[in-house]
Amino acid sequence: MTTDGAPKEDGGGPVTALTERGEDITPKKDRGVLKIIKRVGNEDERPMIGDKVHVHYKGKLSNGKKFDSSRDRNEPFVFSLGKGQVIKAWDIGVATMKKGEICQLLCKPEYAYGAAGSIPKIPSNATLFFEIELLDFKGEDLFEDGGIIRRIKQKGEGYSNPNEGATVEIHLEGCCSGRTFDCRDVAFVVGEGEDHDIPLGIDKALEKMQREEQCILHLSPRYGFGEAGKPKFDIEPNAKLIYEVTLKSFEKAKESWEMDTKEKLEQAAIVKEKGTVYFKGGKYMQAVIQYGKIVSWLEMEYGLSEHESKASESFLLAAFLNLAMCYLKLREYPRTIECCEKALGLDGANEKGLYRRGKARLLMNEFDLAIEDFERVLKVNPQNRAARLQISVCQRKAKEHNERDRKVYANMFKKFAERDAKVEEASNLRDSACQKGEGDEAMDDKDMDGHV
């Protein structure tokens, strides 16, 4: 078994070419990773840290023996760049490539599998040869909903991130449709960026960033300035935004376990008021952040005095009811129901909890369940005219819904009947033709017998 890292191919081979003419692309310039471009890429942009990259490759030992190939599997290999998911040589080499580029890399053991190797295919201290084609790359989807795509230009320091409520100092530049609309240094509390004309997506992304990290954020309207836009910056409704953000410094907020019950209750009162201000201003996602803090602080708090228990329950009930209202506005009906049920777990006859759950069920076309909720509201408060009206709405919509279903099924059955009739007609024609064919065949036999 070869353990020597030196190339073993004779002159003229790719390993020899890389050794002699390859570009040293290592940060240390120690010739640990050498590169030759075989086909130039077709775009100027290169992948960044955290990008999902798609590549085809084949790998050989320095003696020319192939040990792996994505092309043999006919399946591209996908990994996140700069996250340690592949050998160091790949993180270094692929970062230098452009889309469509094919390159060859010669990787010394310290940038590959080192002394351990990757038995049985790759021996100890092996120098490796790769040919790589960069097929595609795209930014990191931070919340896997397409709303915030991050591309890291400069990796941050350490392993700590700002949390919700942390005080941060950042530099940001905002662009929309190729126009820079914002460029400044600003300090604020994570979760309250809206107070400084900073969209929600920045708040959310900061919780994933490290000190001194510099990244590009692509924000969908949901995480940008939404349906309202931002007249101050001349941003139209539902605009997509691009921000370049540098996290210069931050001071983390106290975590729940670092706060005593008295402090949690004091903070709950503060964030409840902040949430209400956001809600009244139509900033429902920002309000969700504030009300959510109350839940994270108090939902699992135990061993409270009678006074603390009552105060905690009161804050939690208000938080769940307000969250339910926010999610109604955001059209997130399953989450509305979830929050209402949490509220009803604290107060089973809560009028607002029953009404908001009924409203969400109505909007999900769950008419029978919605009627049950509105009827329970009337048992709690017979004077609730809104609930009585909603029952009528449910009954009307259920009737309309059933009528639509009846028409759909009637049309469906009509089409099935027409199709069956056509099939039967075609079958009858085939049977008729077969019978005629059998008669002709019998006549032919008779004629033949006559001739014989």
Automatic annotation (TrEMBL):
Biased composition (Acidic residues): 440-452
GO cellular component assignments: cytosol; nucleoplasm
TPR repeat ranges, renumbered to this chain: 317-350, 351-384
Comp. bias (Basic and acidic residues): 1-11
Keyword Phosphoprotein among record annotations: yes
Localization in the cell: Cytoplasm; Nucleus
This protein's UniProt keywords: Acetylation, Chaperone, Cytoplasm, Isomerase, Nucleus, Phosphoprotein, Repeat, Rotamase, TPR repeat
Reactions listed under catalytic activity: [protein]-peptidylproline (omega=180) = [protein]-peptidylproline (omega=0)
EC number from the UniProt entry: 5.2.1.8
All copies of domain PPIase FKBP-type, residue ranges: 50-138, 165-251
GO biological process: negative regulation of phosphatidylinositol 3-kinase/protein kinase B signal transduction; phosphatidylinositol 3-kinase/protein kinase B signal transduction; protein folding
One Pfam family from the record: TPR_1
GO molecular function: heat shock protein binding; peptidyl-prolyl cis-trans isomerase activity; protein-macromolecule adaptor activity
Protein name (database record): peptidylprolyl isomerase
Gene name tied to this protein: FKBP5
